[in-house]
Amino acid sequence: MAQSNLLYAHSGGVTAVINASASAAIGAARGRPERIGKVFAAHRGILGVLAEDLIDTACFDEAALYRLSLRPGGVFGSCRFDLPSDDGGRVMDRLFEVFAAHGIGYFVYNGGNGSMDAVGRLGDAARERGYPLLCVGVPKTVDNDIVGTDCCPGFGSAAKFLATSMLEAGLDIRSMVGKRGSVFVMEVMGRNTGWLAAATALAAGGDPDAAPHVVLVPEAPFDEEAFLAEVRRITERLGYCAITVAEGIRRPDGGLIMEKSRDPCGYIQLGGAGSAIARMIHERLGYKHHWAIPDYLQRAAGHWLSATDHEQAMAVGRAAVELALDGHGGCFPAIRRIGDAPYRWEIGIEDAAGIANLERALPAAFVRADGLHVTAAACDYIRPLIEGEVAQATAGGLPDYGRFALPFVTRRLPAWEG
Amino acid sequence: MAQSNLLYAHSGGVTAVINASASAAIGAARGRPERIGKVFAAHRGILGVLAEDLIDTACFDEAALYRLSLRPGGVFGSCRFDLPSDDGGRVMDRLFEVFAAHGIGYFVYNGGNGSMDAVGRLGDAARERGYPLLCVGVPKTVDNDIVGTDCCPGFGSAAKFLATSMLEAGLDIRSMVGKRGSVFVMEVMGRNTGWLAAATALAAGGDPDAAPHVVLVPEAPFDEEAFLAEVRRITERLGYCAITVAEGIRRPDGGLIMEKSRDPCGYIQLGGAGSAIARMIHERLGYKHHWAIPDYLQRAAGHWLSATDHEQAMAVGRAAVELALDGHGGCFPAIRRIGDAPYRWEIGIEDAAGIANLERALPAAFVRADGLHVTAAACDYIRPLIEGEVAQATAGGLPDYGRFALPFVTRRLPAWEG
Fold first, then answer.
1. Where does diphosphate bind (chains A, B) (predicted)?
2. Yes or no, beta carbons of A77 and B175 under 8 Å apart
3. Which helix (H) or strand (E) element contains residue A151?
């Protein structure tokens, strides 16, 4: 089989281990010089492909590839951009012009459910055009909502950060218990799913008196009166109550706890559930209230990576290249759990097209019957995903994430009038 | 000199290294059995003294004392309670009744400026009553605003967490730069001072293009138009702008920057400075906006301690006991900087009464002339305080902070009708 070039691109929100997947994919591609010539990375995702902003990763030596694997945020950049289906094929045409201009025969696309959809559509488009492209996805999202994989790289590290944060904040607030009663609310990401919220339950280590005492997830409609009664019961018993709130919790009528807003691209921006809940408690029950919104901190915490997550991010990056070389297009490597004690996993293959635009929610068995906490089964599922620590180099008391030169490939096409 | 017992108590907000001071004070007291009999810790600070809730620390063996030193939050609890001066001496009388009932000859009080004030007043009261008490303070606050010490234990670890968070969030948001421009705002603690906000400047490592691009501190009155112009300038150049906002920033008229929004019922809700600034930018400049509020996470992050901070927390705990044994009451051990490269420090003695109810603000030389960032001098001052890491035991992917039994001493007095 002839040699062709490989292009790697990120899509959507970045994670603490997204570069680990990139590093492993680049490393795997380099290991097959008889099949893969140059290894390019798109600058800022699919928009960078359109703009012909391609980076030649040859500049990353082995040491740099290793450092890359440990750096949070996307070194090559990312973007939120869905391939349009109503533009008469204009975007798709441009993508294939860029692929052709740079001899791309393999496209490795790192993202969430929407990006797996794109993987399927790119494969279809290649077949229609008779262009020899193998397109493979790499699963990634802190939200853990990709269908077809037991877990998603990025989730374990965010989960570890949030569980640690709840553990530590819980110890803090417990120190300060007074007569009046106090509540602490931490709002976490997860969009329409409660995986990250559920992860904070690991902080309690099975102790019903330890934080978090309430975990609100989007999978359970928010019942204000039942919730307030539970907060009151806990605060009267312990003097305080620590609560995790998923950003996407909804009332029984489906409305978000805080109004949603849309950015100009139409993406819904969620937020405000944590402060809304904290204020509600303060107004209704009179307790002292604090709230934390870790926001990007939870998906960027490279100083406190899950070793399991980092290893899985590397594995799916590597596997995506191997799948492409084995002629598997339109798919992505999925993580399969094959044992719980000890935790064991392997890489399987999942059809990318089949999962388009779905979301994997918490199963009912992971949510407590009253909808105010998660179950031991949820903890059992998440526990292995946050295990293990990864040593980071430090300099001056901060993680030393290094700096990476990104040499752009000379453009060969007219500018894209995006 | 006769043997008497030592009582240790926390006051005010806890920190990630407050127990390190406790551990070191207990260890130092144990080392002088000819002078110190039992070593008690008050449960929940001075309110615990009033309630006669005393813990006998003899149950902490050497291993437990070591684990104690590494656990965030106050194991013995704390409270916010200022000694009243208008109660006809009722509270002071009760404190001395408790001291007398339990043979307390040494009182070691860990806290901020207000607690140092209390140390002075307790010493005065002892002299007036002819009660043999040596009262010594232990400086502690993440706000770093205690007068008379070069820095405050607790600050370094919070500063390290926040600088790391800004570094990591900055890498995240830089990955996602798009055409529209985006801002990230992180609100940090510090009350009326900008020390913690200034610490985040270390994340940039001297690179003017790196986050944070703007640092707002209470020492510089907030100039909305100048601020927005700077945010626009930076965002037009880089595509994004990362901003640190101290919780206590104020307008030129002295008013706090608070978010004012209306809930669905039309009630005005007050929020923090961070969300107010983020929304201001969104409304005035139209940028995509995210904000993070680490809240308790920043003062409880035991998984990412500053080794310097931990060492200094131990040193002041130990020194307080030594000062008391040397007959120095009404004072506290202060940290003196005696060298910058390499950083060297020693413990001095500071008069507790002299600093009552003051706050140490950022010096003018630490704030940039335009009030929108801090200077290299501020970074030079803070840098050594975040240096070094402390290994924490982990279990199941989380810090293993252990559990501590707190055996209460049998009460000898009538209940306190607080």
1. 13
2. yes
3. none
**Cis? peptide before B333, omega within 30° of 0:** no
| Residues contacting residue B211 through CB under 8 Å, at least 6 positions apart | B166, B167, B169, B170, B173, B174, B184, B203, B204, B242
3-state secondary structure of B1: coil
A143 catalytic? Reply is: yes
A381 interaction partners in chain B (CB closer than 8 Å) = none
Please, which residues bridge with residue B290 across strands?
A: B184
Q: Are the C-beta atoms of B312 and B69 separated by less than 8 Å?
A: no
- On whether B142 is known to bind a ligand per the annotation, the reply is yes
Which tens digit of pLDDT belongs to each residue from B118-138?
999 999 999 999 999 999 999
**Residue range A252-279, pLDDT digits in tens:** 999 988 744 444 444 454 448 999 999 8
**Residue of A168, A176, A290 with shortest CB distance to B72:** A168
| Structural tokens at position B394 | 């982990």
- Give the active site residues of B: 143
Query: What is the distance between the alpha carbons of residues B84 and B91, in angstroms, rounded to a whole number?
Result: 7
- Find out whether A368 and A214 touch, Cβ atoms under 8 Å: no
Cα of B388 to nearest chain A Cα, Å? 5
pLDDT tens-digit series, residues A124-169: 999 999 999 999 999 999 999 999 999 999 999 999 999 999 999 9
**B323's tokens:** 């000062």
Q: Is the CB of A176 less than 8 angstroms away from the CB of B303?
A: no
All domains in chain A, ordered by first residue: 4-141+302-358+390-399 (3.40.50.450), 155-300 (3.40.50.460)
